[in-house]
Amino acid sequence: MAVKVSENGRLFTIQTKDSSYQMFADDKNVLLHLYYGEKIGEENLSSLIFCTDMGFAGNPEEAGPNRKYSLDVLPQEVPGSGVGDFRDDMIEIRHADGSFAADFRFDSYEILDHSYAIPGMPALYDTEEEKGETLVITMKEKASGVVLKLFYGVFENENVITRAARLENHGETAVDLEKMLSFSMDLMYENYEMIYFSGRHAMERTAERIPVQHAKVEIGSVRGTSSHHYNPAVILCEEGADETHGSCIGACLVYSGNFVAAAQKDQKNQTRFQMGIHPTNFCFHLEKGEAFDTPQAILSYSGTGLTRLSQQYHEIIREHICRGAYKHAKRPILINNWEATYFNFNEEKILKIAEQAQKLGIEMLVLDDGWFGKREDDNSGLGDWFVNEKKMNGSMAQLAEKIHKMGMKFGLWFEPEMISEDSDLYRAHPDWAFAIPGRVPNHSRNQLVLDMTREDVRAYLLERLTTIVHDAKIDYVKWDMNRSVCDVYSHVAAQSRNGELYHRYVLGVYDLLERFLAACPDLLLEGCSGGGGRFDAGMMYYSPQIWCSDNTDAINRLSIQYGSSFFYPVSTVGSHVSVCPNHQTGRVTPFQTRGDVALAGSFGYEMDLNKISDEEKEMVKAQVAAMHEYYDLTHEGLYYRLTGQKKQDFMAWEFVTKDQSRALLTIVKTDAEGNMLPVHTKVCGLAEDKLYRCSLDGEIRSGRTWNRAGLTLHQVLKEYESIRVEFTEAEE
Ligand code: GLA
Questions:
Q1: Crossing angle between the packed helical segments 614-629 and 591-598, to the nearest 10 degrees
Q2: Which of 281, 441, 628, 678 has the least CB density, counted as fewest CB within 10 Å?
Q3: Residue 530 alpha carbon to ligand 1 centre in Å
Q4: Helix (H) or strand (E) holding 597
Q5: Whole-angstrom Cα distance, residue 249 to residue 162?
Q6: Whose CA is nearest to atom 11 of ligand 1?
C-alpha cells in the first residue's frame, strides 16, 4: 500500500518508490501540508512547524487565546478564503447571502485500490500491468453544507502523485464557485526556482527559469486553450538543480483550457504552490445537490535532477494518459501536403505527392486543409464538412481507395470547433457561433468559435466526422484548432451561467473526442492547434501525437522540442522534415539535420518529394530506414537532454533502450566560428558494467567510462550540420 495512515486516521504519508508526501489533520481539523520530497519514514513531521504570534495574523475560534495559531501562516493543503488566510486561496465561494467565505476542515478519509476517474475529463487510468491507488480526503466547509473531496492518486513506480478535487453542494441554498484550483501546497523551508515554458505561435515552449521569492511567479492562459504562450506544466526545483542533481517537483495539468500555475513565498518564506483552472471569467453555479470537479494535476518528484523527473513524466503519460490503437502500435511515417501546396491542390497533385512518397517508403498521406466546402483560402468554409468533389475530382472514398491501393494509409485534416461566417453552416445556424449579442465578435484567422457547450453542435460534428471517416475508410485525423476563444456567450445556457462556458467548452470538446474515438476506434488522431497551441496532457488522452509547432525550421525546433521534452514523451511530438529555405524562418539547413531533428518525434514529411534532387531522395530513404531502425529507442526509450538551451554552440540529446542494450545520440551544431573548437558531449544512461561500441570509430568502452568521460567528435561540424552516434552493447 502506498498510502499509510496513522494517529487515528489523521496522519497521511503517501509513499512512492523514491518520494514521500505527508499531511496531518491537526486538533482543529486543519489539514496541514508537512512534506513533499525525497523518501522518508512515516514519523509525524508537524514539529517542523514553528508557530509564533506573527502580528496581523489572526486566529480562528478554535485557537481560543492562543495567538500563535493562525491560518495565515500554517502550511496547508486547502487554503480557505475570506476567513483568516490572507495568502492566495484555492477555493472561493459566494454564498446565497452574498458573503464570500470558505473554510474547510478535515472530516474523514477513504482509500481505494485503484485510480480515480473524473467525470467528463481525462485522467491517469489503470492498466493490466499497473494499477494506481487513491486516497480520498473529505473536508467540510465550516458554516455551509459544502463538502470538498480531495483526491490523491498514487503511481509508485513513476514517483507520481496526482491531485484533483470535487466540491459538492449539500447545503440548502445554491452557491457560486468563483475559483477552484486542482491543488495548493505550502512547502515550508526550501528555496525554489520555477521552470516554465512560454512562447508564441510557431515558437512554443521555450524554457525559462526564475527564482520564487515574495513577488508571485505566475503563468497561465485565459485563451480558452492551454495556449502557445504558456504550457500547463511547471517545475519547482531547488536553486542550482540541473539535469542530474537537485530536488525537483513537477506539476502537469491534464487539461486543455484556461489555467493558472503560481508559486510565491509568504511572510514566513514558505512557498505556496498552486495550479488549476484560471479563475478569470470563471464562475460555477451549484444548486443544492450539484457538484464541480477540477481537472487532475500530475505531480512528480525527483531528488536527482530534471532528467529523471522528465523520464517519470514520459513514462506516466505514455502508459497512463495516451490511449487507443496507437498507444504502442507503430505510427506510420506520414507525408502532409500543407507546406507542399497550401490550399492550391487538386486530386492529381495529391496523388503525385503520394506516389513519390510511397516510392521512398513513406506510409501515409495526410490531406490537410482545403478539401471541403468552399475553402480556397482561410476566409471561408469552416463548418461545411462536405467533400468538395469538384476540387477532388470525385468522392473522398475514391481518393482514399487510390491511396490505399498504393499500399499507403490515408489521413484527413479537420478543424471541428470552428466556423467561418462565409459557410452554409453559419448561414443556417448563426447562433451556433460564440458571439455576445450587441457586440461584433473578435475575428481571428477570419473565423469564429463554435459553441461546443451545445449538444446539437456536437451531434452535427460527430455525424460529419464519423460519416466521412467511415465512408472513406480514413486511417488518421488531424484535429486542428486555429484561434483563441473569446466573446463566449451561449444561446442555450442560462445567461447567469456564462461563467461556466470556458470550462464547459473544454468539456464539450472532450465529449466529442470521446464519442468520435468510440465510433472510430482504429483511428490515429493527431492533435493540433496552429501547431502546439494545445500541446497538453489533456489532449494526449485522445491524441497520442500532437503537431508540436507550425514552425518546421530544424534549428528553431531544437528549442521547441527541448522545451517539450521536460514533460512530454517524444512519441507525442509531431515532427516533420520540410523544404528549405524554411517557410517560417527562411533558414537553410542540411537535409540530414532536418531528418535527425524530426527523428526525435513522430516522424514525417511536409513537402512535395517530386521537387527534391535524386540525392535528397536517397536521403529520404535513409531517414525512413533510420526511423524504423530507431523506433524502439525514440518511441519507447529513455530520453536524455545532453545540453541546455543556447548555452553552447551545439545541442545534443540521447535515447537509451530500457534494457540499456542500445543508445542513439544526436548532435546538431547551432553556431559556427572560425578555427572551430571541438564538440565534446556528455553520454548518459549506459549500464555501468556493460561494454558499448561507438558507431563513430568502433571504439569499445564500459558504460561507466562513456557515462563519465563523454565523447569528442573528431570531425568538424559546420553550422547546422548534425551527426547521429550509436552505442551498441559489445562482447568482451
Ligand atoms: C494550422 C496547422 C497547420 C495546417 C493549417 C491549415 O496552422 O497547424 O499544420 O494544418 O492550420 O490551415
A1: 20
A2: 678
A3: 5
A4: helix 591-598
A5: 12
A6: 530
The C-alpha cell of 55 is what?
Answer: 502580528
Q: State yes or no: pLDDT of 18 exceeds 80.
A: yes
Counting residues of the chain whose pLDDT is more than 70, the rounded percentage is 100
Q: Torsion over CA of 50, 51, 56 and 60, rounded to 10 degrees?
A: 130
User: 530 in ligand 1 pocket by Cβ < 6 Å?
Assistant: yes
Annotated catalytic residue: which of 424, 616, 649, 729?
616
Atom of ligand 1 at shortest distance to CA of 413? 10
Asked whether 338 lines ligand 1 (CB < 6 A), one says yes
Ligand 1 atom closest to the CA of 550, numbered from 1: 8
Told to judge if 649 belongs to the known catalytic residues of this protein, a careful annotator would answer no
Does the CB atom of residue 475 touch ligand 1 within 6 A?
Answer: no
Residue matched to cell numbers 484567422: 445
pLDDT in tens, 560-611: 999 999 999 999 999 999 999 999 999 999 999 999 999 999 999 999 999 9
- Whether the Cβ atoms of residue 476 and residue 529 lie closer than 8 Å to each other: no
Q: In this predicted model, what pLDDT tens digit does every residue of 168-186 receive, in sequence order?
A: 999 999 999 999 999 999 9
CA of 480 to the centre of ligand 1 (A): 7
Query: Is position 536 annotated as part of the catalytic site?
Result: yes
Quick check: helix, strand or coil at residue 684?
Answer: coil
488549476: which residue's cell? Answer: 276
Transcribe 193-259 into DSSP letters: EEEEEEEETTEEEEEEEEE--SSPEEEEE-SSSS-SSB-SEEEEEETT--SSSB-EEEEEEE-SS-E
Contacts of 429 (CB under 8 A, 6+ apart): none
Ligand 1 pocket member 171 (CB < 6 A): no
User: What Rg do the C-alpha atoms of the chain give, in angstroms?
Assistant: 27
Whether 531 is in the pocket of ligand 1, judged by its Cβ within 6 Å, is yes
- Here the cell at position 421 is 461566417
> Where would I find the beta strands (DSSP E) of 435-535?
448-449, 476-479, 524-527
Is the pLDDT score of 481 beyond 90?
yes
> CA-CA distance, 441 to 449, in Å (whole number)?
10
The confidence score (pLDDT) of residue 496 equals 86
Q: Is the Cβ–Cβ distance between 700 and 731 less than 8 Å?
A: no
Q: Is the CB of 526 under 6 A from ligand 1?
A: no
Cα–Cα distance measured from residue 86 to residue 55, given in angstroms and rounded to the nearest whole number: 13
Which one from 536, 553, 654, 721 is the annotated catalytic residue? Answer: 536
Q: What does the DSSP 8-state code read for residue 717? A: P
Dist. CA 434–CA 447, nearest whole Å = 11
Atom 1 in ligand 1: residue holding the nearest Cα: 530
Residue in 201, 366, 368, 535 to alter for ligand 1 test, most ligand atoms within 8 A of Cβ = 368
| pLDDT above 90: residue 495 | no
Rounded Cα distance between 527 and 481, Å, is 9
Q: Is the CB of 535 under 6 A from ligand 1?
A: no
For atom 12 of ligand 1, the residue with the nearest CA is 369
List CB contacts of 253: < 8 A, sequence separation 6 or more: 182, 226, 232, 233, 259, 261, 275, 276, 295, 296, 297, 298, 536, 537, 538
Task: Give the pTM.
Answer: 0.98
d(CA 16, CA 166): 24
Q: Coil, strand, or helix at residue 622?
A: helix
Query: Residues 296-323: what's their mean pLDDT?
Result: 98
CB 465 within 8 Å of CB 477: yes
Q: Is 480 in the pocket of ligand 1 (CB under 6 A)?
A: yes
